[in-house]
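Dear colleague,

Thank you for sharing your sequence with our group. We've completed the structure prediction you requested, and as agreed, I am returning the results in plain text so they can be pasted directly into your records. Please verify that the sequence below matches your submission; if there's any discrepancy, let me know and we will rerun it promptly.
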Amino acid sequence: MSPTGSEAPFVIKPVKTGTEAGRVSDFLLGEHCFDDQRFTPGETDHLRWLPMRSLQENAVICWYAEEGGEVIAAIIFVENEHKSGGYRLEYFGVHRAHRHRGFGWRLIERMFDYILENNGRYVETFTCDLPEYASARKLFERNGFQFMCRLPDYYYPGEGKLLYLRMLSS
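Please find the predicted C-alpha cells below.
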C-alpha cells in the first residue's frame, strides 16, 4: 500500500537491460516466488538464463512488475520453435506477500493479448502434479487452459508433469 492508503498501480514492464534480467532471475530463483524450491538443474539454468535470452531473442518474452524497487511478479513465455502461432508459458510467479491481488491473472491476460496481437493461436503450459502446485493448476484452469495429459516421473521419481493448452483463435 502507498502512504495514502491506495494501492500502487501494477505496471508490467519488459526486461530491457541485463540488470533487469538479473533481478528477474534472482526473484524467480529466490525464496519468495515459488512454493517448491526443489528446482531441477535444468529449471535453475532456465530461470537464470531465459530473462537474459529475452534481450537477444525475439521469441523469448520476459516481463516483470515491481513495487518499492523490488520485483514482485514475473512471466516468461516463448514462441514455439516452429513459429506457427504457438507459444509456451514457461514460468510465472508472484511474490508470496503479493498473492491474491490478481497479479498472476493480469500477467496471463497481458500474455494472451500479446500473443493475439502477434497472430498467435494457442498457449501451452505445464506444472507439477504435487500438492504444492494446486494453486497454479487452478489458475490455469480458471484462465481457460485445458488439461491435456500427465507425464509420470518427469521431474523426479514421484513428480509428474501436467500439460495444459489454451486455444486463442480458431
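Summary note from our side: The mean pLDDT is 91.

Kind regards,
the structure core
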